[in-house]
Amino acid sequence: MNKTDLINNISEKNGLAKKDVEAVLNGFLGEITEALAGGDKVQLIGFGTFETRKRAGRTGRNPQTGTTIEIPESTVPAFKAGNKLKEAVN
């Protein structure tokens, strides 16, 4: 399912205009992005937690040339599923 499918499904199930659903979804994603960029964590009880994690620097290898390169430390977004979501999937 992609973003357009999600908007269409929510619109049909709730009788809302696609334009309104898209505005809410874009706002939701924007708020999560801003919170993660600011170092905050977003917890949706029953669904899951969006957070950032530090990835340590490491040595990698260029597959074309075989030379080693240093990959710097970075911060990456992460999602941990909540209990209700895990139960629904299983």
TrEMBL record:
Gene Ontology terms describing biological process: chromosome condensation; DNA replication initiation; gene expression
Entry keywords, A to Z: DNA condensation, DNA-binding
Protein name per UniProt: DNA-binding protein
Coiled-coil spans in chain: none
Matching SUPFAM superfamilies: IHF-like DNA-binding proteins (SSF47729)
Gene Ontology molecular function terms on file: DNA binding; identical protein binding; structural constituent of chromatin
CDD domains linked: HU
PROSITE patterns on file: HISTONE_LIKE
